[in-house]
Design brief:
Structural class: alpha/beta
Number of strands: 16
Distance between the termini: 84 Å
Helix content: 55-70%
Number of helices: 41
Radius of gyration: 34 Å
Length: 955
Amino acid sequence: MNGRRDFQAKDALSFGPFSLLVAGRLLKRADEPIPLGGRALDVLITLAERAGEVVSYRELISIAWPNVTVDEANLRVQIATLRKALGDGEGGARYISNVAGRGYCFVAPVTRSAGPSIPAEGNADGERPRKLPPRLARMVGRDEAVRAVSEQLTIGRFVSIVGPGGIGKTTVAISVAHALLNGFSGAVSFVDLSALTNPQLVPTAVASALGFMVQTQDPFGSLVAFLGDKKILLILDNCEHVIDSAAVLAERVVSEAPQAHILATSREALRVEGERVHLLYSLDCPPEHRKLTAAEALRYPAAQLFVERAAAGGYCAALSDIDAPIVATICRRLDGIALAIELAASRAGSLGIRGVAELLDNRFSLLWHGRRTALPRHQTLNAMLDWSYNLLSEKERVVLSRLSVFVGDFTLEAACFLASETETDEATAIETLESLLAKSLITSVPVHGPTYYRLLDTTRAYAGAKLAERGEANRVARRHVSFFSKFLQHDEIVQSRFGEQDLSGYTSHIGNVRAALEWAFSANGDVAVGVELATSAAPLFIGLSLLEECDRWCERALACLDDAARGTRQEMILQEALALSSMYISGNADQVRAAIERGLALEEAFGDRRHQLQLLYGLYRLLMRLGDFRAALAAAQQSATPVEGAQDPAGLVVADFMLGTCYHFMGDQAAAQFYGERGMARAAEPGTVIPNFFGFDHRIYAPISLARTLWLRGFSDQACGIARNAVDGAASRDNPLSICVALAYGSPVFLWSGDFRTAGDYVERLIEYARRHSIEPYRAAGLGLKGALAIARDEVGPGVDLLRSALETLSAKKLNILLTLFAGTLAEGLRMTGQVEEALLTVNGAIARATDCGSTYDMPELLRIKAQILAAMPRHGRASAMGCLAEAIEVARVQSALALELRSTMTLARLLAEGGQRDQARHELALVHDRFTEGFQTEDLKQARALLEDLQSRS
């Protein structure tokens, strides 16, 4: 009895403007989803289903924290979260009431209706597919293991299923994942580590499965930061060959991500803090008893599995009392290992049960003579596979051994290429593959699109040893490299313009590509075919955001090019891919720039401009980051020339956005507005698809740049609206880099406007996003903006400290584009604390940097800050300050930056008034103030209006 009313899982519960989809675990207001954590949803569903009834504290805690002892304070936190989400108490609305000493009661009227149908295993269109293999239709003998592991995982958060190969670890893990799916609100991700050959790629593989790109030299820390406080279950399957790396990852996740759970499968324990080991033993086998009946035998899961697999393999007769002891013997001699039993049972259709037993006896009699206990399990599996191998024809043996070179999934086309020597052998190869599939030596993998196949791990290891015995290992490995090189080279989608196509459907091939490259560049490999594969695979690595691997293999390939290959298309592709991948992972800006410029030169030489726009954009982003605006403008102008000639709509949009942003930072706001608005208009034309280069979403960055430009030009109301929409758009797309850039460059619009509340909210979000996703330069940008906000609020001491720290990090990370902004604000803070000498040195350094960059949008503001510092220094005084302000006003006019002209004019008016020139001060300020047409509620215009009134009253 759980006290719930007779509600169905598919019910929608409605109250006020809200609807609660029980099965979908989703709360909506109108049609807008309201994000809630899993425990808050548990509490809300329970209360809403029992509206009008007091639900005790203890019962709510047991529902939200099953099998865990927590304090009532935890429940109060969830209730507070719900009240905030529901707007409880706003406008007289009441939903959750606390009944002192008893519990909580849902007091709003609740109506029930049939909710939408929600498929158990599906996911909504557009969502990232859940990385969870399908559950077996029937699992034999593992129900108790699934229950025990589920319970251990709920309590302890980290469980390793440990046992020999073929015992059924993955099957149990998948079943556990499906059993706990609802408890994790669908946040369950299955990561097959068997395809990895390099242990260092474990965090990258996990990140890829979670849909996020590692952009740091500490991938473990980046992954932990991304997980944060998410409630999620990670299945790490086949850890044994990468166990050290998997152990480090698991330990850090469990210790640093408080709601992340890990279920690992391995042939040995990971042996790290927090791990609970669940030993998966063999299936229970029937005892040795001559009078054992079929009914008695079938009480044991090993016999059940044998009979089911025998029937699936064509054995039609029911198990008889006569054959029951024989089946029991087979199961015991195979140690109850599920894989061994399945393989043996699959022969029953052709050999019969007695025939299987006879072959088993003949094959293992020497090994097991005089032994009452089983051999070590890996030897048992090896012996069983050896026996199965000897039942194959010579052609089947050859093909099976050659297939061992595949890592993870492979296609029929790939298998035929390796299995056959010539095209005429293809039909025979297909027939042989079908035979191996029927004998369970290879399995088909249920995925969308083409059918994939794979060898079980134990079978692959065994077949690999046979391949080595035949002396074919290197020859077949070379064919393996050759196949994937040609396959990728001739695939138009893979070889399209970087970032233009979605390559997620090619994920199944990445394990084989990695393995092929590892062999090709090894001591026994073939560097020439390795270079070819690296060239063909480079777009795939970029498309899957595997930038570190792309950088590694492109560097290896370029280092191996001989003189004849220099200056060829092959070098061009490698240089392009190296440049693009190095943008994030390399701290060597000179190396990145050299690679980009070399790629551009080769494209020009070959007249192949497929990647020219992307390379120019990469060069432009690098130069903007370094603060070299003159060179960035040249790159932007160069990008516009070929796309105008080719009438490339997407290229025209990107070129306009590049020019608009560059002119903004260089200080030509009129040109920036022209190109920004033209780019936005072109982007809005039907059919225009804007490419996503380097993870930079121009739909976010272009509006942010335009908003900053409009603010400087005096259109602050428009600027704030555009900036707010751009930030909201970035958040809805859930791309960490887009969100960070939108917040970093959008929040100053609100800071400049005096909207400290919005600016502060954006800055805190920026710091948190950058921390969670380990994007350190943008975390430093967030701290710098927080310091600028503190100084604007007269919290000068903390602001100065934050700005110093931010400038140090940004300089080290070479995010120079923000240095003048923060240096100028730091100088302002130093002046406010009386440190005028250091303030002058700081602002002079910022002005010098801005001049070296070819002027900057904040040059008028830097000159204004310098004027205030000079006015505070007796040796310089008022005259020097007035001259500096005159220069600031002139620069602002040249830049068409009316907002900055107003700031400098206000400072000038104050100095004039202090010198008794009140009429001139009022005249100068009025001329500028009267040119504004909007933004009269911004802080600057309110101060200007107040100053004009004061000057008027005292004149």
